[in-house]
Records
---
Amino acid sequence: MGKPDPLLAAAIHELGKQKRLAEAALAQLKDDELHIRLNAQQNSIAVIMRHLAGNMLSRWTDFLTTDGEKPGRNREGEFADTRIPRAELMRQWEAGWKRLLNAMNALTDADLLKTVTIRNEPHTVMLAIVRQISHYGGHIGQILLLAKHITLARGRTWTYLTIAPGGSEQYNKRMGMT
């Protein structure tokens, strides 16, 4: 067996990076802060996490053989402002990510040009992967922004997850770029 397709390997790498960034942001929050809504139209971090988990479980269960929108999924329920303990929220989060990463790691190069459906719309496997990376990335960005806002609003210091403002030169030196 040869090396995996470079695009598939890159997709798996980036998904793992998104998960780690979100979890580093979550680690800066207290349990009750996961349920804060900035306004009536804004989802809490917990709601976004439940939505991502539900989407991952639906899309990546029997990924190559069934439509990505499973009949048993309760998408609207994912957006209900239900308070659940952090441990249960993390269990759901991990279950979604595990399903996603297991499905991605099981793909072969030959699978990438196969056709799958999402809500009865055909996609190549590669397009379906790109679609999901885009979807998840948008929501991970929401989690990061909300976590930072909540942390700073509560008077705590935010630990930057990437290069902190004003830190580019120091980072570039550390990476041997200057």
---
Amino acid sequence: MYKSTLFKLSSIVFCLLFANSVWATDFVDLKFGQYQTADSQWNTSSCYYSPASYNGCQIYSKNPGKTYKIPWFQGQLSWATGDYIKFAPSGNATYPWTATQYNSNGTVKAVLGTGKVIYAGLVNGDGYFFFMGNDNNTGQLFSMSQGMNSSAGLTFTGDINPDVATLNSYAATYGSTTPLASGETASNSSPPAPTPVYSSGITAAQSTKRTSKLSDTASHGMEAHVNITGGSNTVYIDQHDAAQYLELTIIGNSNTVDIDQSDPTGVGTHFSDIVVDGNSNALDIKQQGTGSKTAFIGIDGNSNIANINQKDSGSHYLQLDLIGDGHTATILQEGSGSHEATVELSNGGGSWDFDLHQQGSTSKEYSLPHNMSDGSTTSGTCYVSAGCSLTVIQSD
């Protein structure tokens, strides 16, 4: 033996319903065959104490099919064709899971022991977790989605000390309810990327990238191209003219960006194309005036905040793509009519907050595509195991 949230869903004007039945598989439904377990040489710091410092749980090498009881000196499990391991709640807050080995006919064969999942995550689209016994000594690798067939090490990235909801999310997306043999992969492993579902209000390549960027924003009245690389920058961009055109790229973490596009005459044509690649960035974007207000925003990372304020009068369009976990998006489009917003979410199971206000006068449309556990896409629904807050106000 080697050793080294709750869902919240709210809407003020109308209700969007979430059905718990979308969870096809809970963690306790999974069945682990012999080669879905492995005695492992592991980096205790990376999996238990400070996984963020190592970019995940680091397994130096593994011995598939060798499974120790807890504590390890009680010996190994014996395996026969069709045997499998299942997890069940133990009732112990510190060590919440009991692992039990079953014969192929479903009768108990042996008790592996009680412990806790100290880390769960992904590598190459397959789900793994590390289970440590209540002796704080016996640790073993489990694969949710494949029968392991090599001694090679791996590093998987995800969640430290995952709660039940998080484990259910991994199980629903990557887990197998039938034991997997050596080299066998679950059919629901590595779900396809979501296909966006847009509202009827726009697309055809988002109306040919919003009519060729609003005719290059009236021939680039006030034009800015900004590239930011690095962290902890504070950037303020102020464009005041009859036409504003902004292209902004941010690569880095913990940047604060404040963008103000407006026209002193109260009219103006406003266009922003923004790409963010990093974590913990904060964007505050204002487009004000009675002319066209268009924003294409793509954010890839975790814990980013985007506040988008497009005001009066009419002709609002926003496309916001969020990839990662823990994002907060607040969107205000306001009057008078011509509201269109497409927000696409893709993540690894972390929480997010989404708040959309559109309001007067009519012309309100939005879609909220999100990846489902079977690889399909749903629209207008909060679907994250770690919890989310969804508020939509459309008015009129």
---
Amino acid sequence: MKFIGLNAGQFGDLVMNTVAARAIKQKWPESHFTLGIGQPFKEIAPLFKNHPYIDDVHIWESYDGLTDQDKYYIEENEFDKVFNPMPQHKHSDWYNRVKNQTEEVCLMHDLIPPDDLSCYLEKYFKPFGIGRDVVCISPWTAHEPKNLPLEKWEKIVKYIKGKGYDVAQLSAPNQPAIYGAWRSKIATSYMSSVNTLLASKLLITLDSGMSWTASAYQHPVLGLYGYHYPSIKSPKVYEPINSNAIYLEGQHANDIPLEQIFDQIDKML
């Protein structure tokens, strides 16, 4: 059988759906699965090449829908199923039903979730070797309500630098710069940011695509998470599965005291 995934959303959604790809291969071991990536996020495509559960990668012309050329591609390749891995959940209370949203991504497509719900990415490149005396921060998310104030990030950066570490900010060039963190030309694309990340000691992040990417490599992460819905029982359902991650939680990420963040930084460095 031949499957193709429609655009899976932004960076974090793409990484998250490696678990759905594993579930497809678990149900149909001989199947051929092509991961579809939207044009705005095509730079991340190399991370999914040579992947044990993904046979091919296709870049869609469109992000929000299918163009005529996209539809022709589906027909020409005679796919048996067009698999839409975008997490448009069937159940409004999904976050209280599953242990992790990667499980829900499988269930909403009638796939049996694999025993291992962690993500996986191909190590497409080797880190360029900036050294382990660097701490990365991913300070901004695609959803403004999740973000911390600029001044709080600056206090975190000042604390890390006081411990003798440099701080690299991993974010889009058009996002605000955190005073004290460096942003060089090599860290202005997602792929180069991953390269910087893998050569660092630790990532401190909100619920971001970089959090999911780091966890796919089981890279050390200090995650700052809040409750996104009034009825949610725990933000753990949003937290990528990572044996090297510590997650601090509050009603909002900004409610996590700086002293608690600093204490955890001390333990992880």
---
Amino acid sequence: MSESTVVSQMNKSAHRSRKSVPRVSIGMPVYNGEKYLEQTLTSLLAQSLKDFELIISDNASTDKTEKICRSYALADSRIQYHRCEENQGAAWNFNNVVSLARCEFFMWAAHDDLWDPEYIERCAEVLSQHSEVVLCYTATQEINENGEIGRQTATNSQLGSPKPYVRFGASWRYSPHIPVFGLIRTNILKKTRLIGNFSSSDRVLVGNLALLGPFYGIEDYLFFYRRHQGQSTGAGRHALIGWYDPQKRGKISFPHWRLLREHLISVNRTPLSIVELVACYAGILRWMMRERWYLLNNLVLREPSRKRRLEKPNAVR
């Protein structure tokens, strides 16, 4: 076989390989999600953009999750089902689906949420047309156990600012569970430290992504975030540590101080001008003043009062 023939075959093989890679990777970390899982899978499979892979990482579920996932995977070749035989914690599970992703765009999908059929297509269109945008998300409606619509959350224009410190500050004042489930450029996401094994690490990740580039918010309500009993939202930050990492369950933690430390690390790891750096530090100082009650309570190893916690609208899921 001639050298030119070998090169031609290699080029054809590489072309086929590129064509076989879908446009979007959807990562679904799940643990004991049987109650809403079929609704969620049906919602994802009904998306108008069909060119995606769905990566399910089952964190040693003990209910019917495995059976449901294997059934859907047999029926649709776009679904990959991976099962861990020991619960590694939510942080590991969220990051595992990222490590398995191979597409240009990535989206986390919780096992209990729903999406408008145009959600992925419209977000992918934005990322394709605006190379500077690192993440696209939409306005959001909360739904309850029965799918009834509750609170609505519009997009935040400051997250699309050309100034990193403006986006960084805005990320603290916006519910992290909305943009963190948006469509993200995979190469940008992999530049971050992903989801950490500490409380509010989703907020840290959103802040880190905001430093790396602007977000684009679609004003239509295309994402339906489910709130229900049994999810991590609403639990105290001390209690959440075991959800993120089972090996840390029951150990002493200082969640708000850890959050402060991680925000500082994000800023220090991002190439910023002196002016932008100072502005970010000033924003962190303002955050410390607003959160001083929580920081002080961390030092005595207790949660703020329930009344005080209910004043905070952006609890971690």
